[in-house]
Design brief:
Layout lengths: L5 E6 L13 H7 L7 E6 L5 H8 L5 E4 L17 H6 L4 E4 L2 H5 L4 H13 L3 E6 L3 H5 L3 H12 L9 E5 L13 H19 L6 E4 L6 H5 L7 E4 L10
Parallel strand pairs: 1-2, 1-8, 2-3, 3-4, 4-5, 5-6, 6-7, 7-8
GO molecular function, one term: triose-phosphate isomerase activity
Organism: marine metagenome
Pfam family, one: TIM
Length: about 240
């Protein structure tokens, strides 16, 4: 997936209710303005709100995505689970896969690979999360870990045109700490270089996520190689988002 859009992806995690849908009205209004023409806004609410978000944004420039799916593509006896087919049927166009929250809940690289394959088969566009822990960072294994996550997550997947990469250092998520700008710039460059060489993609899209807020996003946008942001807590407040 290559284009000149700047992506702003709102990951609502396990927050929100029917009333909170109205809070995105401000964002809808902003998205219609000319200066935001190249801003691609994607909301990823909880499963229970997908249908309502799709209806709310159907005639706007805003797209809707899911936060995860089951690794099994077809229907089956998986209590409490939702597969990519159901997410597609609900009207979603995007899906987050590999977030540290789901990795912490047991998602291995193999499971993530199955989820990506399943989602691609349903023509969903993937937001593939990658990132290192604080321990891995201190041991100078960041690139090693990220490259492994990418290779294992995309095993036997040749075409990655519908995949956006979201670099989220695990140690930054929810901590209020972001990487030093030079370090982040270098890491994004390394990720893009690896993807280009491994998958023969000219211009891979790499977003940044991890404690993004209205204040530090001004600094983060100085890194021209970043193609957008995956935003958690701050995205739930339409005035901040």
């Amino acid at each position: 997936m290559t284009n000149n859009n700047m992506y702003f992806i709102a990951n609502w995690k396990m927050f929100g209710n029917l009333k909170s849908i109205n809070s995105i009205k401000n964002v809808i209004n902003l998205s219609t303005k000319l200066k935001y023409r190249k801003a691609k806004i994607i909301y990823c609410p909880p499963y229970t709100l997908l249908d309502q978000f799709v209806k709310k944004t159907i005639k706007t420039k805003i797209d809707i995505g899911a936060q995860d799916c089951h690794s099994h593509q077809n229907y089956g006896a998986f209590t409490g689970s939702i597969n990519a087919k159901m997410i597609k049927n609900a009207g979603s166009k995007f899906i987050i896969i590999g977030h540290s929250d789901t990795r912490n809940s047991g998602d291995t690289n193999k499971i993530i690979n199955l989820k990506i394959k399943s989602s691609l088969n349903e023509k969903l566009k993937i937001i593939f999360c990658i990132g290192e822990t604080l321990k891995e960072k201190r041991n100078k294994k960041t690139s090693q870990i990220i490259n492994k996550q990418i290779k294992k997550g995309l095993k036997n997947i040749k075409k990655i045109n519908n995949i956006i990469f979201a670099y989220e250092p695990v140690w930054s998520i929810g901590t209020g700490i972001i990487p030093e700008l030079d370090d982040l710039r270098n890491q994004v460059k390394k990720i893009k270089t690896f993807i280009k060489k491994t998958y023969k993609v000219k211009n891979p899209l790499v977003l940044y996520g991890g404690s993004v807020n209205p204040k530090n996003i001004i600094l983060l946008r100085k890194i021209s190689s970043i193609n957008g942001f995956l935003i958690g807590t701050a995205s739930q407040n339409s005035k901040k988002f």
